Amino acid sequence: MKLERSLLRLVRLSLRTLPPAFARERGPELEAVVETLLKDARARSGLRRLLVCGLRETLSILLVALRLRRSAKKRVQPRARERKPDMFDALASDLRHALASLRRERGFGAVVVLTLALGIGTVTAIFSVVNAVLLRPLSLFEPERLVMVWQTDRLTGTLREASSVPDFFDVKERNGRFEDVAAYAATEVNFRPPDGEPQRLVVARVTHNFVPLLGVAPLRGRLIDESEDVPGGAPVALLTEDFWKRAFGADPAILGRNLELDGARHAVIGILPGGLDFPDRNAGVWVPLQVGPTTNPRYNHWIGVVARLREGASVEEAQADMTALASALEEAHRENSGRGAFVEPLVEVLRGSARPAILLLFAAVMAVLLIACVNVSNLYLARGAARSQDLAVCLALGASRFSLARRSLVENALLVGGAALLGIGIASFFVRALMAVAPPEVAALGPVVLDARVVLFTAGLALLLAIAFALMPALYARRLDVTSTLREGRGPKGGPGRARIRKLLVHSQMSLATALLAVAALLIQSFSNLERVDPGFEAESVLRLSVNLPESRYPRDFAVYPRWPEVQQFHRSLLDRVRELSGVRSAALTSNHPLDAGFTNSFVIVGREAEAKDQGELKTRLVSDGYFETAGVRLEAGRFFDDRDRIDSPTVLVLNAAAVTRYFPDQSSSEVLGQKLRFWGAEREIVGVVGSERMHGLGEPAPPAMYVPMAQTPAGAVTLMVKTSVPAEELIAPVRTVILDLDPELAAYDIATMEETIALSLSKERFTSSLLALFSALAVLLAGVGVHGVLSYLVARRRVDIGLRMALGARRVDVASQVAREAFWMSAAGVLAGSLLAYFGARFLSSELFGVDGRDPRIYAAVAASLLIVAVAASFSPARRAASVDPLRALRSE
Amino acid sequence: MAARDPGTRLPLTSLSFEILLALADEPRHGYGIIKEIERESGGRFRPSAGSLYAALDRLLGDDLIVERDFDEGADPRRRYYALTPFGRDVLRAESERLARAVAAAARKKVIRKGARTSEG
User: Fold this and answer.
1) How far apart are CA A383 and CA A294, in angstroms?
2) Distance (Å, rounded) from C-alpha A376 to C-alpha A851?
3) Which of A123, A421, A592, A845 is the most exposed place for a label (fewest CB within 10 A)?
4) Residues of A at the B interface, defined by Cβ within 8 angstroms
5) Side-chain half-sphere of B78: how many Cα atoms within 13 Å?
6) Do A29 and B57 touch (CB under 8 A)?
7) How far is CA B85 from CA B2, B63, B96, in A?
8) Lowest mean pLDDT, pick from A117-121, A384-388, A507-511, A741-745
9) pLDDT per residue over A297-338, tens digit each?
10) Tell me: the pLDDT tens digits for A636-686?
11) 8 Å CB contact between B74 and A85
């Protein structure tokens, strides 16, 4: 329990303030009791109670320390009066004075603490995300020297493609800048734990040097030996610590035993430490990749290549090397046409995608904190004015300005310290709420917790704020003219300079709030565009789940492809049985669900063979009959797949509209019907054209794609899609029963509705835009409070003027509207500045925006209008107060 | 020790009184004292650990309570406290003083005689 531990730390810290003799005698016991009390509080009544209890105990210890030290002094030094007061006395007296004055101004203290706690709390929460996602050290040795060696494809314009096995061996051979080069691929297998249902397990297949290259040592046992990482080598396996604990209860005897994965036995040789960031945090088992330079074809791109830079080598040098190698390979091998290289730091790969959104959120919360601080400064200014009398008296009686400054510092340290503690409490709730809605990019990067670094950050922030706020009244005291203040008497005075400072504060507040609201509006608009985009398929009432048929029982011999009777028999029975279930409208099998990127394939248009070299690849989907109906994909021309498309009937395919536009730009959809493409050793006739599915996510254009009937091109790993007439979730159990019935060893995995899948694909955008909406609302609210405060101050200061004007015939409505006008113009300058800020900042946002122009004047107009409305609304009560000034009384008071 | 006059220690602070009262039936450790006080007050009052130990320190210094080793093997930081005979005298004297005060309050109709607090 994090909070309990930090509270206990706080208590221990406060124990240090006790006089040494008492601390020695009673300290440990006292600590033990507080420990028990905290445990009680948590067990009995939860977190809030725990926080209150911890803070109460801490405070009481501090007070006891103060009391004991003072009484000790009285006893030991009866003639303390003659002794020059030391630092501790001064501090104690400051503390007492601060507590007393805060007790007197309880309202002021509460508002300051709450405002700052809100600001500090949100900043702390977002910083803890920054910490977990961007700052936490990776579980790899010198990760800054690790790079991914991607392939690029000039023809499709993609930047991060997997490598082929022969290409990997070429890179390994030419490793001028690299200390070592390793390869990996992630697969999924069926695994049945000693007691339980078969489940899906992510397996990392890695070359023998992969783990040493990451700089990771095994917890137990040994790593993969070079002799095991050859085609047909011994089947061995490494378990990750998490999986070892989860599946085998951390039984050390697992070493040397056999593990059955997809029915094949693997000897367990070692345990890897848990929480490895790469290649996949979910991988439970690591096995040797077992490939050689000639075992796999060059056109098959399925492995990731990672390398460790030599000491002193730069990414740019490696990039130059790899570019040279790629063009040499392009010369030498037809399969490599169009393929380049892209060397990317691994840290970038792991963290790059989440960074812009998180930094944006961090900037937003810092803006909120700044606005909150401006409000607090305003309060200080108001109090400074009210207090100038007290200060003047103190100075007149001989207090040094230094001692006044010190007192104000102590007072602020108390306020800000309280706000920081409360803020950490707020943050711990906020973080939990945050993680519940966080996108997988954030959640996958490790636990978000309030660790030492976060607390240190918050403490630093609080210290900075305490000093800043302490300086304000101190500056005020410096400028204070004792005699004139004493003569003038009480009341909100302050010259025109003070009013100018306040207006300046309002400007800055308004501009920050405007900028924040504008950015939030852009992102919200962008998110709603994304939600409204036509994905090319219908997600409603569609369930998906995947199965992977193990080769041991479902042989896949490519020599006789596509004749895989066991696989095809399973597909047939599965579809037949599922279609019979009640609540099922249609069902189909596919190699990839609509939002799964899947793979691409090269092809030749029969009759246009010369173009093949430069035409790039087509996204390729293997789908059963009924797929388009189930996924809700439109038919544009020709026909869908049906019973006609059997293993022995003419080979056919369906293109999507994007492919027709790209490869047959001059022909209509119906004109391409009957033409043929050649790939996988056969000519296939185009029998249909369908609408384009956005396979790369709703924000990306639909890629050109082709579909081939699964009856003619079977696959071992398939996704079953079911369109239902009842809520899709209700079919999960019946479908699983069907699968277990057909094969009790088979795990159904990756089970979700398509609506969930879409929601998940938008979770990052939803996360960012909803948080920004929240923060900007907070900012606008705080800015409104700021405007209200300054106007109230101005109205109070001008009572006499207002009274005079009314005596001279001004109507109440004139007075009120003047205040409203003032609110308007005071905010207008800030709104303008903020709009400009957002306008020029928006170009850094362009990568996060979809279908919105970052400079869309309508958005800025709406944002400016809403802020001005807020400003004028905030002037309502000061305006009423101005209108209700009694001219006689106002003039008499002067 | 018996020669000392309990009257010189009166009145007790309310926390000191509560502590002595909590120790009246048996020796307790610090946490036990807090719990007993909380129980006796029907959950309305629970001293903080800091003020408890400050008070214990004072009571020890005034010889109203002593430290007592109790069961070994428990948390070694945990110590037990028991009333001294003098402490018992002071507790009795303070209780009588309070009883007189309550009686006086009843006579003056501040409270009804024999009135019970709401939680019973």
Assistant:
1) 81
2) 39
3) A845
4) 22, 25-26, 28-34, 36-37, 56-57, 59-64, 67-68
5) 17
6) no
7) 8, 9, 17
8) A384-388
9) 887 888 999 999 999 899 999 999 999 999 999 999 888 888
10) 999 999 989 999 999 999 999 999 999 999 999 999 999 999 988 889 999
11) no
Strand partners, A676: A685
Q: What's the rounded Cα separation, in Å, for the pair A397 and A204?
A: 78
Residue A848 backbone dihedrals phi, psi, to 5 degrees: -100, -5
Q: Which two tokens stand for residue A148?
A: 């991914």
Compute the distance between CA of residue A618 and CA of residue A653 in angstroms, rounded to an integer.
12
Does residue A787 contact residue A826 with C-beta atoms inside 8 Å? yes
Q: What is the largest CA-CA distance in chain A?
A: 112
d(CA A839, CA A618): 39
Hey, what amino acid is at B101? A
DSSP H/E element including A658: helix A657-663
Q: In angstroms, rounded to a whole number, what is the distance separating the alpha carbons of residues A716 and A562?
A: 11
Interface test with B, best of A16, A26, A39, A49 (most B CBs within 10 A): A26
Task: Tell me if B48 and A29 make a contact (CB, 8 A cut-off).
Answer: no
- ∠ CA A615-A616-A618, nearest 5°, is 110
For residue B87, give the nearest of B56, B45, B120 by alpha carbon.
B56
Residue A582 is encoded by which pair of tokens?
A: 């009640």
Contact between residue A431 and residue A448 where contact means Cβ atoms under 8 Å apart: yes
CA–CA separation, A170 and A650 (whole Å): 40
Q: In 3D, which of A881, A863, A867 has the Cα closest to residue A786?
A: A867
Which residues contact residue B63 at a Cβ distance below 8 angstroms, ignoring those fewer than 6 apart? B1, B84, B86, B87
Q: How far is CA B60 from the centre of its chain?
A: 13
Cβ distance B34 to A67 less than 8 Å, yes or no, reads: no
The answer to whether A657 touches A692, Cβ cutoff 8 Å, is: yes
The phi and psi torsions of A438 (rounded to 5 degrees) equal: -70, 145
Rounded to whole angstroms, the Cα distance separating B19 from B14 reads 9
Please choose, from the candidates A762, A594, A791, the residue with its C-alpha nearest in 3D space to the C-alpha of residue A694. A594
Chain A nearest CA to B115, separation (Å): 32
Contact B57 A22 (CB under 8 A): yes
C-alpha–C-alpha distance, residues A223 and A358, integer Å:
37
Q: Is the pTM of this model over 0.80?
A: no
The two tokens of residue A800 are 């006499």
What is the count of residue pairs from A and B with beta carbons less than 8 Å apart? 53
* Token pair recorded at residue A284: 């439970």
CB atoms within 10 A of CB B3: 5
Q: Please, are residues A514 and A780 in contact by the beta-carbon 8 Å criterion?
A: no
Distance of residue A64 Cα from the nearest chain B Cα, in angstroms: 6
Cβ–Cβ under 8 Å, residues A615 and A632: no
Over pLDDT 90: what percentage of chain A?
A: 41
Length in residues, chain A? 894
Strand bridging mode A236-240 / A264-272: parallel
Bridge partners of A661, per DSSP, are none
Token look-up 């309550």 returns: B102
Phi, psi of A341 (to 5 degrees): -130, 150
The CA distance from A236 to A264, in Å, is 11
Q: CB-CB: which of B31, B54, B57 is closest to A33?
A: B31
User: Residue A267 is inside which H or E element, if any?
Assistant: strand A264-272
Is a pLDDT exceeding 90 seen at residue A382? Answer: no
Torsion B100-B101-B104-B106 (CA) sign: negative
Using omega within 30 degrees of 0 as the cis cutoff, is the peptide bond preceding A218 cis? no
Residues of A in contact with B19 (CB under 8 A): none
SS3 at position A646: coil
Dist CA A94 CA A381 (whole Å): 21
Which chain A residues are closer than 8 Å to B68 by Cβ?
none
